[in-house]
Design goal:
heterotrimer; A: 230 residues; mainly alpha; Cytochrome Bc1 Complex, Chain D, domain 2; 2 domains; two-stranded antiparallel sheet; 11 helices; elongated; C: 496 residues; Cytochrome C Oxidase, Chain A; 73% helix
């Protein structure tokens, strides 16, 4: 762009826009005339402390990228730092089975049986004060391992639902924990269940793949199962 | 900087760099069916959804379920996804092969659904929950999807598909609530959401 | 000769010539820019209504929930697209076109086609938004418009980009000012983003999680490489313009622009930390996000040192007050964003309402407030009519500013707590939900405040177009400015 002299500029008529809109130049002068000139640049230098700070940030960026790039491989998902942290400060699984049991209950059972163990009337039976929960461990273990379906009476109310099987989802320790939990929560007062007894029932019923029905469970109630000594 | 070419060149190069890094490279690395380091053990082969479930995913898409529900499990030690029972392991690229669109989600106003089919295999539960979430989940803020259900007068016998509503929520005796095709499809889709199979790249 | 020298150096005759040029430029820009602004105001109102609906539905889920087109999962994306593409983008386009023409000191080109672009853009908005409510949303965040809508925007934007670039090519002003760098960037970056994203996600979708990477590359860059450059460009122009002072440092301007262009691009995948993507991709985005501190601090210093010593002008000038609010919010939201991308912070904030607060700090407190300030400056120059009421502008400012602060505090605190609880597996999920309710209600309250402000703004806009009331002498300010002598300014008093 060549510099333009004042004379040249003064002689340039304002070019009308394509829309051929006839605007009254005078009308637009009021706000325009009081305007300042167009913005211009100052030339203060970049402060040196700023340069240092930015260099430090770039250095950090390089270090971070070098450390946590997982080799740029598509199969590496966990960058090292997270792996190191969890092994060093492993969230210790609670030693108390009841705490584990409560957590498992919240994760797996609350949706149907509700946090208060009261279930949903007509749909999902309650666990509080339920004869099935505080009764024979052999029965309760089977319900969890293979599931339960068909007509069922709980505290005098009838249900006809579909409890899923948990044998694949939870191991013996976990099943024992959650069963022990429900057997002593909400006013229930039954003995806890040991992982070994779950293991025994799992072995005894290993051929069974379909859910139980109520009649079959009553029959199995007579089989002895290990519980904790009071 | 009065040279327009300098500006244009810089604007182009800076943009192209990240386009290569965030668009092209991931596409080349991830789009193929299997990552080269995966040894599928008992991982389910992710067959494309067919029929009713595909229709159900469309219902999920149309109604914006993704704005409250994520479908991704974070790794052990990063958040508490696994402790909450949302999955036995983190999810990886292999878990979403063939999905269009991928419904990862970025909000958890409601729980994660990556494995809801494994965690909640009861179709009855899903129908009750969709019809009115507060039936199964008191205190939930999920909207009702009652418009996916039909309230109608019982003609002759009750329909076998009719929802068995608890007494507090039930309609008058002459009426029943029946799922529409969209509701059945949506539930079919939800029941198939299961990414629990072991995968090597998902880590220990 | 450039106009961009100290006004003491320009002769009165030169100033007259420049003023006449500006009048001609404003005349050429009038219809298209006002057209985009009118569209923007409409979609601001529509987007605000959708926002209120969505917000109420979260704490009152059974509110208007029988109609499928009003379910939260449709209303929420309709809101986002209405405000992002209807309000923010159109306001941005109007500001961009006017700034390009003014800074080039050349009339805006292709104005008739630009009017077609206004129509196409708004038809696209209507078609897309009703499409979402009708159940055709793609459920791809920031790209929810069904596939029949994007072509409207693509054609409209082609016209806009061509007009902007032809205007630039025909510039009379030899100096290319910093604002123009940002606008050139925006006008180049957005079409590439939009085309690539629509092709790879909607029309010929790639399979699997590569989509997620592309999705968030797109969505984050709509904020960073489309809206942000326009917002910063407007601030770079209007702050020195209204104050009559130079921008503090050309070197900082250079550093700020190029570091933004380089780093902002890479940040998008921070939306997927912890997700099913390889570690390298996530790490790259975290690095890009943290590096953004560099351009943000640079621009903050540049703007601050330009304004420093003149903060009392914020008492009078609507343009200045909105823009300074916006510019400070830019620093805040960007630093927050850099922090949020660190894995330890992200572990808490991801998936929570905290992120929603952050998003609004950006698109609203930064960008929207700067657009309000810009529109308050530009419109009187296009219509030749001053704003009807300083008190109504003041009402607009306070409702939106206080509304935004309340919004941010409510969801930031509520979201952080939500995240902490979510990371504790012993807290049942429904308990977490219940605990967020008071904050969600506070957000609705904030939304009502902001809605009132938007109504005031819309009323002012319409009154100006209708040339309502008596002609004013001088700009419409918040309060009357005392006489010149009392201000001890070194240059003429600031315009509005």
């Amino acid at each position: 762009m060549n510099p333009v002299t004042s004379q040249q500029r003064a002689s340039e008529a304002p070019v009308h826009s394509d829309s051929e809109e006839r605007h009254n130049v005078q009308e637009l002068h009021a706000p325009i005339l009081r305007e300042q000139a167009e913005p211009r640049d100052g030339f203060e230098p970049i402060p040196s402390w700023l340069t240092l700070v930015f260099a430090a940030i770039v250095f950090w960026g390089g270090y971070y990228l070098a450390s946590y790039n997982g080799g740029f491989r598509s199969s590496v998902y966990d960058e090292q730092r997270i792996g190191a942290e969890t092994s060093a400060v492993e969230t210790a699984k609670p030693a108390d089975p009841l705490v584990l049991g409560k957590r498992l209950y919240t994760a797996n059972c609350v949706a149907c049986h509700q946090p208060g163990g009261l279930g949903v009337s007509g749909q999902f039976p309650p666990l509080a004060d339920s004869e099935w929960v505080i009764g024979e461990p052999a029965v309760l273990n089977r319900i969890l391992l293979q599931g339960l379906q068909g007509p069922l009476s709980v505290k005098g109310q009838s249900y006809n639902g579909n409890m899923p099987a948990f044998s694949a989802r939870l191991n013996d320790d976990q099943l024992a924990a959650v069963l022990s939990y429900i057997r002593q929560e909400w006013g229930n007062a039954a003995d806890p269940i040991l992982p070994s007894s779950v293991a025994d029932i799992r072995k005894a019923t290993s051929q069974r793949s379909t859910p139980w029905v109520a009649e079959e469970l009553k029959a199995s109630a007579s089989a002895p199962v290990a519980t904790e000594q009071p | 900087m009065n040279q327009a070419p300098t500006i244009f060149l810089g604007v182009f190069l800076t943009f192209a760099s990240a386009w290569l890094g965030l668009v092209v490279a991931p596409y080349l690395q991830l789009a193929p069916q299997r990552s080269e380091n995966t040894v599928a053990s008992d991982a389910q082969d992710r067959a494309p959804l067919g029929g009713l479930a595909a229709q159900g995913r469309d219902v999920y898409r149309a109604n914006g379920c993704v704005y409250c529900h994520s479908q991704q499990v974070r790794p052990e030690g990063f958040g508490s996804d696994i402790d909450r029972g949302w999955g036995p392991r983190r999810t990886v690229a292999q878990d979403y092969v063939g999905e269009r669109p991928v419904l990862l989600g970025t909000m958890r106003t409601g729980p994660d659904l990556a494995n809801i089919g494994a965690r909640q295999p009861s179709a009855t539960w899903h129908h009750l929950h969709l019809y009115n979430p507060r039936i199964t989940s008191p205190g939930s803020i999920m909207p009702r999807f009652a418009f996916l259900y039909e309230r109608r007068k019982i003609i002759g016998q009750r329909s076998s598909a009719a929802l068995k509503l608890p007494p507090d929520w039930d309609l008058e005796p002459a009426y029943e609530v029946v799922p529409t095709d969209d509701a059945k499809a949506l539930v079919a889709y939800l029941l198939l959401l299961d990414r629990t199979g072991a995968l090597e790249e998902a880590g220990p | 000769m450039t106009e961009m020298t100290a006004s003491a150096v320009l002769s009165v005759a030169d100033k007259q010539v420049f003023a006449r040029q500006r009048a001609a430029i404003d005349g050429s820009a009038r219809l298209p820019v006002l057209g985009f602004f009118a569209g923007a105001v409409f979609w601001l109102l529509a987007g605000t209504a959708l926002a209120l609906l969505a917000s109420i539905k979260l704490h009152n889920p059974e509110f208007l929930d029988s109609a499928p087109w009003l379910t939260f999962g449709r209303v929420r994306p309709a809101h986002l697209n209405a405000v992002a593409y209807g309000w923010a983008s159109q306001a941005g386009i109007g500001v961009l076109l006017w700034l390009m023409a003014r800074l080039a000191r050349a009339e805006l080109r292709q104005t008739r086609l630009l009017l077609l672009a206004v129509v196409l853009w708004n038809v696209g908005m209507l078609v897309g938004t009703t499409g979402i409510l009708a159940g055709e949303s793609t459920s791809i965040e920031w790209l929810e418009f069904p596939p029949f809508a994007p072509p409207f925007f693509a054609i409209a934007f082609a016209i806009i980009a061509v007009s902007a670039m032809v205007t630039f090519r025909n510039r009379r002003e030899p100096h290319v000012y910093v604002t123009q760098w940002y606008l050139i960037g925006a006008v180049f970056w957005f079409p590439w983003l939009y085309t690539a994203a629509n092709l790879l996600l909607l029309y010929t979708p790639v399979s699997g999680v590569a989509q997620a990477s592309i999705n968030w590359w797109y969505a984050h860059n709509v904020l960073g490489l489309w809206l942000t450059p326009i917002g910063l460009g407007a601030a770079y122009y209007l702050l020195p313009k209204v104050l009559g002072r130079p921008i503090y440092s050309y070197q900082l301007s250079l550093l700020g622009f190029w570091s933004l262009a380089l780093f902002y691009n890479w940040a998008g995948v921070h939306h997927l930390i912890g997700g099913p993507l390889p570690a390298w991709l996530i790490t790259l985005s975290i690095v890009g996000s943290v590096m953004m501190v560099i351009p943000v601090i640079t621009v903050a210093i540049n703007h601050h040192m330009t304004v420093v010593g003149n903060f009392r002008q914020l008492r009078y000038s609507p343009t200045l007050r909105f823009i300074v609010f916006g510019a400070m919010s830019y620093t805040a939201v960007s630093v927050q964003g850099s922090l949020q991308s660190l894995r330890t912070v992200n572990e808490v904030t991801h998936f929570t309402h905290y992120t929603v607060a952050h998003a609004h700090l950006g698109v609203y407190a930064f960008f929207t407030m700067i657009m309000f300030g810009s529109i308050y400056y530009i419109v009187p120059r296009l219509t030749g009519w001053e704003w009807a009421s300083g008190r109504l502008i003041s009402f607009h400012f306070w409702t939106t500013a206080l509304g935004m602060v309340l919004y941010f505090l409510a969801l930031t605190f509520g979201g952080w707590w939500q995240g902490l609880e979510m990371n504790n597996a012993d807290v049942p999920f429904l308990t977490i939900v219940q605990n967020t309710l008071p904050y969600l209600r506070a957000r609705s309250g904030a939304g009502l405040l902001m809605a009132a402000g938007h109504l005031a703004f819309a009323v002012l806009f319409v009154l100006n177009l209708l040339r309502f009331g008596k002609p004013r002498r001088g700009p419409t300010l918040f309060v009357e400015r005392p006489k010149k002598a009392e201000l001890a300014l070194t240059v003429e008093p600031a315009g509005s």
